[in-house]
Amino acid sequence: MLEMILFYKLSFITSTVSGGVLSVIGKHFIWRNKFLELFTLCQFAIIGNLLGNLILPDLELPLIPLVTSVVFFIFGKFLFDFFKVNAKERSTRMICIYLVLASSQYLIISLFPNLETHLSNGLFGSMVTATHLENWIIISIFLIISVGLFFLNSSITKNSLEISFFQRRKKHIKDEYFLLIPVVIGVFGLGLIYTLSFLSLGAVILGTSFKNQKTNNIALAVINIIASIGGLLLSLYFENLSTTPLQVVLLALICLITKVFNEKLLK
Amino acid sequence: MIYLSAKNLQVGYNSPIGMPIDLELSKGEILQIKGANGTGKSTVLKTLINEISPLSGQINWKLKGREISYLPQGGENVNNFNFTLEEILKIYEVPESIKSYLRDNLRERLWINASGGEKQLTLILSRITEFTKVLILDEPLNHLDQNARVLIEDLIKKLMSDDSSISVIIVSHLEVQLNKREFILC
Questions:
Q1: Do A213 and B82 touch (CB under 8 A)?
Q2: Do the Cβ atoms of B68 and B61 come closer than 8 Å?
Q3: Which chain B residues are within 8 Å of A36, Cβ to Cβ?
Q4: Terminal Cα-to-Cα distance of chain B (whole angstroms)
């Protein structure tokens, strides 16, 4: 078992760093009521990933899918901001856009069936099958983001509260692009399900379960890291179990158990 | 001393709302802007703080931007967080002297457990800095019961008695129990 852990050490570092960072940034999207927008933007990134993989064999550049994912994601965000799609009645609009984008993904697959594996990876990802290069990219970017978050946390939190309290959106979109970087990197390297689950589950289930926000932040980061590492470890031990679904289910269980125990303790 | 004078000010987004107005705000004064729904009360405020450009007329502030604090009208918000009222004031970097307006027993109270009045009181305090000379409040008494309104009115009275240089502009369609001058939009 120890040998296996050492063999997958980069995956364990990825799960630790990603779990921690996603817990910190996820709550901002929820407080800003932007989670559905994020979910829809991730579909742009998956299309970018598919098209990147389509042109990859010709260019022989392994980073092309990452670049096209980022470009499509930012293009989607730019369209949303420019046409103010995310201003009014956005829930319905986002679902409509998601339906079109998801259909486009399956159209691409029907035209190029060899991309099906990449679509599956885009949804579920896998830390276990990630290459060294992919792991190092994810670890490096998440570490840089965590340093940025350390210095910018206060102003980002203030902006999130402003949006939450007053729906003041116009002046506070710059930091959103900063928060979106780890999301698009996460979707590319770790998959949509892992990224969005680790962004949201803790913040949604345990959002109001602690005595203050500082405790909440620490608890969510610890829970995210435990669930991510634990799920990875279990999937290595029980070979038939997929990594990402196991991590997500474990995260949900830990959050729910913590909520129940916390409420009993508070009573 | 006159902090603000607006002459022949016509507000609106694309087309004018109401008639052109003349406004003045003096040091240590409370000005309540009243009017029925749709008369452009909030639009006037947003124009005064330069969030919206005036369609015509002049606005002349005798103060610097950092001396003007504005609290917008609250809306439906996401409250899925664990902030205490004190944590919120810390995030907004409210000076200790202003934080003291929040009673000790309220500091550790979670935002989600606070009453409407306590929340509004925290939001008003979050706007005040060491430089604040004019506090602009957009419908601060909306959706508050009588006790909560008294809480907010007492806060404004105390703020102004502690610092005689502070002036307040309140937009409200409700009757405010403060020693104020009224400006009615129609």
A1: yes
A2: yes
A3: none
A4: 28
Return the structure tokens found at A58.
Answer: 């010709």
- Count Cβ–Cβ pairs < 8 Å, chain A vs chain B: 64
C-alpha closest to that of A222 among A208, A194, A207, A202: A202
Side-chain half-sphere CA neighbours of A163 within 13 A:
21
Verify whether the Cβ–Cβ distance A213 to B83 is below 8 Å: yes
Flag whether pLDDT at A172 surpasses 60. no
The answer to whether B49 and A171 are in contact (CB under 8 A) is no
Nearest CA-CA distance, residue B64 and chain A, Å? 20
Segment holding B31, helix H or strand E: strand B30-35
Q: How many domains does chain A have?
A: 1
Residue A8: give the domain boundaries: 2-266
Tokens of A239: 């070979």
DSSP per-residue letters across A53-85: HHHHHHH--TTHHHHHHHHHHHHHHHHHHHTTT
Question: What CATH number is associated with residue A160?
Answer: 1.10.3470
On whether the CB atoms of residues B98 and B161 are closer than 8 A, the answer is no
Characterize the bridge pairing of strands B30-35 and B21-26.
Answer: unpaired
Please state, in angstroms and rounded to a whole number, the distance separating the CA atoms of residues B166 and B55. 29
Mark yes or no for CB contact A167/B77 under 8 Å. Answer: yes
CB contact under 8 A, A209 and B82: yes
Q: Whole-model pTM?
A: 0.88
- Structure confidence by residue, pLDDT tens digits, A175-196: 888 999 999 999 988 999 999 9
Interface pTM, i.e. ipTM: 0.87
Q: Using an 8 Å Cβ cutoff, are B107 and B85 in contact? A: yes
